[in-house]
Amino acid sequence: MKKAVIASMALSALSPLAASAAERTLTISAYAFAQDDFKSLVYDPFEAKCGCKLVVETGNSVERLAKMEANKANPVVDLAAVSMADALAASRAGLIDKIDTAKLSNFAKLYDLAKDPNGDGMSVGYTFYATSIAYRSDKMKIDSWADLLKPEYIGHVAFPNVTTNQGPPALYMLGQALGKDTPDLKGPIEALGEKKDEIVTFYEKSSQLVQLMQQEEIWAAPIGRFSWAGFTKLDVPVAWATPKEGQTGGMNVLVLTKGSKNQDLALQFMDFWLSTDIQTKLAEKLIDSPANSEVKLSETAANNLTYGEVTAKSLKLIPSAVVLDNRAGWLKTWNEKVGQ
């Protein structure tokens, strides 16, 4: 009996991490987007590697942040994937912790804009996207965001509603082109308001744009790069604009829940997600543009995603503080000048 106990103790001593990990559950909060692919490419491989159980909660940003707030005293989620602005909102609410990037072996591989997106050490970017203008290259030429308002073009333009993810970034760049780039976006909103009856539509879903362009109802629209693939399949010539003011876009980040009892495991998962291998697999499936600078993509994937150091350095993202402090005002001004 004594020998059996000693043997059991020795066996446990050989693999204490495996023994403890097998009893652990990591809960993450993520976007509902492409979860089947995330399961096969990210979640299942990580479970096999760590010997732990991964629980995934999905939903929109408002719901997921509300749940984090409701469970602030006794956190349920260990790690969350959110937007840059939501990460800052969570930080201001005391819901997340500073990330010990020394424990992330893949941190140095990230593009600079993804290493500390909000400048507070509370988030790490895992994907970003460019926002620019998709346009009919046989019908028009786009050198500036302001070209969308030219009399000969505006009757063929769709512009994102301010309530969409693409609305504020597009307004931000239009404001820069017009020399009216104040945080309240009043200048570009007023400029659109003056031309609102000439614009084809203020769209809410980018999926409707491909058909409108195919039918030649529109020639141009600001879009996120993640929507670009649909335009490349049209039988009309469509180009991606590189305006002189630059491109804007957005970024999604990973955050650690404050008070989580599994932060070490969450950091392991974060590092796994940021690895060259995982970022490459997600990019090749056209799920996420890679934040890892070591990722090398096929021509097809590269052409459909936001990819490469030059592009990463060129993006002009709206600072999260500007978004949080002004979006209520943006909506008010939009409703006054442009309407529903």
Automatic annotation (TrEMBL):
The keyword Aminoacyl-tRNA synthetase appears for this protein: no
Pfam family, one: SBP_bac_8
Signal peptide: 1-21
Keywords for this protein: Periplasm, Signal
GO biological process assignments: thiamine transport
Superkingdom, taxonomy of origin: Bacteria
SUPFAM superfamilies with a match to the protein in the record: Periplasmic binding protein-like II
Descriptive protein name: ABC transporter substrate-binding protein
